[in-house]
Amino acid sequence: MNYTSSKASESPAEPKGKRPPVLVDGVTLNGPTLDIREAESFLREAMPIVMEEAVWKATDVKEKVCEWRSPEQLKDLLDLELREGGEAHPQILQRCRDAIRYSVKTGHPLFFNQLYAGMDPYSLVGRFITEAINPSLYTYEVAPVFLLTEEAVLKKMIEIIGWQDGGDGIFSPGGSVSNMYAVNVARYHHCPDVKVLGLSALPRLVMFTSQECHYSVSKAAAFLGIGTNNVYVIPSDKRGKMIPAEFEKQVQRAKDEGALPFMVNATAGTTVLGAFDPLEEIADICERHNLWMHVDACWGGGALMSKKHRYLLQGIHRANSVAWNPHKMLMAGLQCCAFMVRDKTNLLQRCHSAQASYLFQQDKFYDVSYDTGDKSIQCSRKPDAFKFWLMWKAIGTKGLEERVDRALAMARYLAEEIKKRDGFRLVMEPEYTNVCFWYIPPSLRDTADGPEFWRKVHAVAPVVKERMMKEGSMMVGYQPHGDKANFFRQIIISPQVSREDMDFLLDQIHSLGMDL
After folding, report:
1. pTM of this prediction?
2. How far is it, in rounded angstroms, from Cα 412 to Cα 389?
3. pLDDT tens-digit profile of 2-39?
4. Which domains, from first to last, does the chain contain?
């Protein structure tokens, strides 16, 4: 390393502007290289673009949900190539406008495509704050506010679940990761030696889940070395709920094979049908066979906020662990995913800790119990609870309850409208806010049900979806399910959605598909 200076010594009191340059390996180190005024100017120009284009226009029902372009067209429009030199600010600001313009506006009132939607202003400001401060939640010393708000949110969520003796938890980067946490913690609970000795020291483990579960359950089994063949899939009834008697049969089968059954994943709010497994009956079986009971309430957990609808999750207080995503029904903004355990023995810490001495020193000057990062499988971790905390503070538990009640009422309205209209047919009565239905164009309405009829109905939804995307009018998902032909799955979340929007949805589907 080459170090040079034009003076041998310099008074500390000498103004910085008069100091001679210091060179290290040919790099001048005096002063910051970032032009603060230029950076401030860019931010002052960029933020109004964000507010106007990504917030106000993107949530205006009169604007498009999306401006569809094919991948090749979009590559040309965005000029994605990264070059040696940088671009001027006007060009970068245009890049910002283009990124917003060609993105799907998920906060739009007519975006119904996924299990998240809408835009909450308090959550959005919370995200602005955390992105600006850019903390990481491993220790109190670097994220004091955000560790405390996470603790407060988890405590309240645990209370709402019904764990009267308390529990523990952590926010994770997605419901899939929460479900992986559940599998890992359940395995450690049954076989604590796995942390040190690994898979070779274990018997063959078997876990259980319904045929309607989220695909992250089988991914967890693959990722953690349990193996997808050791995930025993339990049949569901016609409404998509796990059949408890079939569950117990599969537990006995695993025992008869000499395997060790160790956990079940029950689903509270399935992805497609919005079904809720019978948690009380599942809990009874778990107690009889000493199984860890995990409830994937990522989607359906929002119903716990409603006195009117929390019956859907009756028995969740008996679970050993729960995954619940406030970014879904409660609109906390992506991503916001809590994993919680009914445990007060530091199970999360014991299962995941590595005791990194450069982060988790035990001789710090404050209470190190607030250094919660060793409970996580991550090192860097975003403060995802803060936006939910800020939103909760703003609208209160009552406001969250009203959102849930309104969403379910709107789903009921839509289902009743579907029954009244020619060419629309419910797949089943909705239990949650998943409203699943077929659109049958006029050309098929006099055709008797049968293989040929359903083959033709199967082709309708993809064409209607393509047309609505290219028009940009709205976004609704579709899928086949088991032996059922493609049907639309309408998801209702946002309080911005009106009865008129539901009427428009049905009118628009008919308009887009009536010639098929």
Report:
1. 0.92
2. 30
3. 444 444 444 444 455 567 778 888 887 877 777 889 99
4. 136-382 (3.40.640.10), 396-512 (3.90.1150.170)
